[in-house]
Write a structure and sequence with these properties.
By secondary structure, this protein is mainly β. It has a single domain, classed as Immunoglobulins (Immunoglobulin-like). Helix content is about 10%, strand content about 40%. The strands form 3 sheets. Strands 1, 6, 7, 11, 12, 13 and 14 form a 7-stranded antiparallel sheet that branches. Strands 2, 3, 4, 8 and 10 form a 5-stranded mixed sheet that branches. It has a two-stranded antiparallel ribbon with strand order 5-9.
């Protein structure tokens, strides 16, 4: 079954953080602004999970153009996902999603998306068990029969986004603490990274804003971020 998602806020990512992410390469770390080093790289997740971890089945990333309540028209990225709890215990499920572009935008899902847009995309998908980003939060019981299916939406920041990455948090309890140089304070700062699921898309040229076909995934894996 295909899935799709939704909501968003634009937060520019500092060049320093982008430099760290580039050096980290496949680790794809995104460190706080002001933390830079020529040798920094995010650690990899443990090969065998030592903390709880939900199964995630992400659907394709798509584009939807929606008529807004004020009479305007706007385009959104959206995708759906399915979360299954096979950890052996019931858990609180409160996922979060971020989308980054090659231009340095970092977009938080769940903001600046009118409720009418969410309602319209839910209507188009016509999935009886699909929940929006707010209603999906809550206890997730064990087993496939208690899986949660969610929708996530982001406004499209540019028709030429280049490389797009989605970071999914809240599906793993694994964390790692690292020390990084804090350039602004001239000292070392300790930060905590969490295990997140990353999906990456290479989108050359201009997006077809009227096309809801799945956008091709070029990479998907767990990272520490």
């Amino acid at each position: 079954m295909s899935y799709i998602a939704g909501r968003v806020l634009f937060i520019p990512v500092a060049r320093a953080a982008l430099a760290v992410a580039a050096i980290a390469g496949l680790a794809a770390a995104a460190l706080p602004v002001g933390l830079t080093s020529a040798c920094l790289a995010a650690p990899e997740p443990d090969p065998v999970p030592k903390r709880w971890e939900l199964n995630i089945n992400p659907g394709p990333l798509r584009v939807a153009t929606v008529d807004l309540p004020d009479g305007g028209v706007k385009t959104f990225f959206y995708f759906t996902y399915k979360a299954v709890n096979n950890t052996g215990t019931d858990l609180l499920f409160a996922p979060s999603f971020e989308l980054s572009t090659e231009q340095g935008d970092l977009i938080h899902a769940g903001r600046d998306v009118p409720s009418a847009v969410t309602d319209e995309i839910l209507r188009r998908l016509d999935h009886p068990f699909l929940q929006d980003q707010i209603n999906v939060i809550g206890q997730i019981l064990q087993g496939e029969e208690n899986a949660k299916e969610g929708l996530v939406i982001w406004p499209v920041p540019t028709v030429k986004p280049g490389t797009v990455s989605i970071y999914v948090k809240g599906f793993s309890g694994e964390t790692k603490v690292i020390d990084v140089p804090d350039k602004t304070a001239g000292a070392v700062k300790r930060i905590t990274l969490s295990k997140q699921y990353m999906l990456r898309y290479n989108l050359p040229g201009e997006l077809d804003l009227k096309d809801s076909a799945p956008l091709p995934v070029t990479e998907r894996r767990w990272i520490m971020r």
